[in-house]
Amino acid sequence: MYKKKALTLAVTTLTSLNAPNLNAKTQHDRVDVLEARVHELESKLEKALNALEAATAKQTTAAAAAAPAPDIRKIDQKVKLIERKLEVDKEVSDGKWAKLPKVEVGGQGLKVESQDGDFNLSVRGTIQQDSDFFIYDNNGNPANTNGDDLNNNFYMRRVRPTFTGTVWKYVDWRIMPDFAMGNTRLFDAYTDLRYFRSASLAAGKFKAPVSLERLQSASALTFTERGFPTQLAPNRDIGFMLHGEFDRPGGPETTRSSNLYLFPEFFAYQVGVFDGTVNNGNIDSANNDSKQVEARIFAHPFQGSGYDAVEGLGVGIAGSWGNPNDASTPTYATPGQQTMFRYVSAARIDGTQYRVYPQMYWNWGPFGLIGEYAVSQQGVANQTTTSGQIGPRTKNASQIIENDYAWNVTASYVLTGEDNVFQGQGIRPRHAFNPFEGNWGAFQVAARWTDISFSDNVFQNVAKAGSKTPVYAYADPRQAVQNATNWSLGVNWWLNQNVKLMADYSQTSFQGGGGVYDSAGKLTDEVVDRETEKAFITRVQVAF
What we know:
This protein has helices at residues 2-15, 19-22, 27-66, 69-99, 212-215, 308-311, and strands at 102-106, 109-113, 120-134, 153-167, 171-178, 185-193, 200-207, 236-246, 267-274, 292-299, 312-322, 331-333, 339-342, 347-364, 367-388, 391-414, 442-453, 481-494, 499-517, 523-529, 533-543. It is of the alpha+beta class. The strands form two sheets. The chain has a 16-stranded antiparallel β-barrel. A hairpin with a 2-residue loop joins strand 15 and strand 16 (391-414). Helix 1 packs antiparallel against helix 3. It is elongated, with a radius of gyration of 46 Å.
């Protein structure tokens, strides 16, 4: 359009040229005049086009500035609304994430914890598959009780899922069943109100605060089986227990553990009232009104002293007192899980019972030592049943005070240099087993000497004078040993903090506990020593 206007202007200008000028005298003159007019026309035309383009640009700019202003404001408002919506969505999203619990899966199992840390749930477990191989045990006939012809076994020693947690920051709980050995049984189920470190209250079923080695976690044991002193102490009991832990005066405050006993305290105490259970007993319910008091004090006297050699020394004493009435009798087993002592069927635990347990452990770098001594006194009665107007009644035909003793010393050393530990899950290898990278985990060697003795009077023969047939009112020395002494050597291979392989050689000699059978297979009156038990015991353990 603009080009048409320019062309029209050029034509108009050309036609306006003076006619006389075109009628010059000569042809040459006419050409000069015409060229001059053409140059003049080009100059004017250029100026006209420049002016036209400037005017057009000005109109376009003015129109653009006037028209879009309302549209820009609307767009700006929409952008701000979108930005605010995004901010609100982010706040809502952040709020939802803030309420979600923290989840952690690792060597300590599965742990779920609230954002504020006041609530948590942990799922852990222990699996132990054992094997017992008895050496040189084919010396008698399978019907006797002398420790001959023992079966080599593969069996599940422990299968224990463990559920622990905290509610409202200060209330801990724990539930642990066991599905091993073809049985299902509840081992732990308790609540611990720990509002005050110096005075917490636990209620439920848990380990009795008596034997030191019993309080050590089953996954951290140096040998596949504990020493004899644990068999004279209660295993699990039901009741209430007040307990407290104290830091070293002037020392830093240490972190509180949710475990009832394995807190690395400067000083600790436990005292409780329980239903009361027999030696090595695991009670589920009481069968009488009598209760039992169990207590323990333990200290790490050199904790924080700066003397590395004794920093890991712990010493204490524990005990119990009760008055069981007509309680069932316990049995005692060898490291190879063979019954070595049982009472006669008419015997019952009846009368005052007490236990005293001095105890210690000492860890110094890779070296570890556990020592424990046990004294157990209890009343044992031989009961008879008579008929009465309201049904059968029992009475004590005779009664004795039985005194039993046991002790244990276990030493161990970590060949790969890791710290030996008593508490917790066990040794933590510096490098987990990985043969592709040349890492072999941690190796521990151990030695143990443990002994148990039963009171002489428990083998009392109450047969009438002149009788040739013995009558044992409490325990038959042909089926119950008077003494057992065990020494063991072991090697433990920690592939990582969760997997351990164990291999023990255990040898136990006995005094008494064996009988002699005649040609007809009848048990004679003669008492002999039970055959020495020589056992090679292995374990594959996964604990997390």
